[in-house]
Design a protein that fits this description.
globular, 2 domains, 10 strands, single chain, alpha+beta
Length: about 350
């Protein structure tokens, strides 16, 4: 069941991404030749006034085919003929819809919560070893090494990535206080390895549910950047990356494990959907990276052309930009193939 949910979720994520492009392109009066949900042979299709709407066999993708995406076709309503701000808006819309979907999924999940953990310290365990010139009950932890802290989970995330010491900013008695070189570490208290800090819980009003859902969506973005940073610095390797097959396997494992632990299908679906929300935000961030073939790469070229036009009075011909994006797509497909083989080997092992 969870594999089916995962496959459907991927189809929805891509369809909603392309719908973002589609709806903004229409609003900007750009000609859209086809809007397709799924890939492969068409199961259902309907020709609109100018756009072909199609439902295709494989629920693994979709696309919004605009007139003149990679070359000037001479049509005044072609994508390449539009002003820079319109093109940027259309390209950003796909990622924007993915981010919005991720936020809405979290909001729905959190709507049943009774309360949320805050960043306020409400207790320290007996024998807490770092109280001197350090954290005190009543402190509101604002940041760790420059990273904003909104909840107790943020505290755990950034402490787990910290070195031997941290620079921690807290609000105490209404004033900000910086704890520089604070050597807080997990210790064994009452037989459990922990930081020894208890955080407060705030009631889940409508406003707080909205606010903590926004915090979570923002934290998803930060987690993606942390992952990219780890990849660039070599903290993690390419063999630890996962593609569609690997992610579907993880979603299936999460669903089955939660169901086994809680004996509740609903709890399992909630955990699966929380993971889908993270994937939605992940797709939004990754798609905006300045990599050829991705929307971020196209946006990058728009700004390069704006600069070139101001400085040299010339722009990069659309066909050459198309060649760059085509080469980028080939490289991305190659990387996806490598990750696919890696995912399958992991599952087999």
């Amino acid at each position: 069941m969870y594999i089916v949910i995962a496959i459907i979720a991927f189809g929805v994520l891509i369809a909603i991404h392309e719908f973002g492009h589609f709806i903004v392109a229409k609003a900007c009066h750009v000609k859209v030749n086809e809007y397709s949900i799924g890939m492969g042979p068409a199961i259902l299709k309907k020709q609109g006034k100018e756009t072909l709407y199609a439902w295709r066999l494989l629920p693994i993708g979709g696309y919004c085919a605009m007139e003149g995406e990679d070359e000037d076709t001479g049509d005044e309503r072609a994508f390449t003929r539009q002003s820079a701000w319109k093109r940027v808006l259309i390209l950003v819309a796909g990622a924007g819809m993915n981010f919005l979907l991720g936020f809405l999924i979290v909001l729905v999940i959190f709507s049943s919560a009774d309360g949320f953990y805050t960043n306020e310290v409400t207790r320290l365990v007996d024998g807490f070893q770092y109280a001197d010139n350090g954290i005190a009950v009543g402190d509101e932890i604002l940041s760790i090494d420059g990273h904003r802290v909104f909840t107790s989970q943020d505290f755990l995330t950034y402490m787990s990535r910290a070195g031997d010491t941290v620079d921690m900013v807290v609000r105490r008695d209404g004033e900000k206080l910086t704890l520089r070189g604070y050597g807080l570490k997990p210790e064994t208290y009452n037989g459990v390895t922990q930081y020894g800090i208890g955080f407060g819980v705030t009631e889940a009003t409508a406003w707080r549910t909205l606010k903590y859902s926004a915090y979570t969506a923002y934290n998803f973005v930060r987690m993606v950047w942390m992952g990219l940073s780890d990849l660039v610095t070599g903290a993690v390797g390419l063999n630890e990356m996962s593609g569609v097959v690997g992610i579907v396997d993880v979603i299936n494992d999460v669903g089955q494990q939660t169901q086994a632990e809680t004996q509740s299908v609903w709890a399992a679906i909630e955990d699966v959907m929380y993971l889908v929300a993270f994937i939605a935000v992940n797709l939004a961030v990754m798609n905006l990276l300045p990599i050829p073939a991705l929307d971020g790469g196209r946006i990058f070229f728009i700004f390069i052309n704006l600069i070139a036009e101001k400085v040299f009075r010339k722009t990069i011909p659309a066909k050459y930009e198309g060649y760059v994006h085509a080469a980028g797509m080939v490289l991305l497909l190659g990387l996806m193939a490598v990750i696919l083989v890696s995912d399958i080997l992991k599952i087999v092992r």
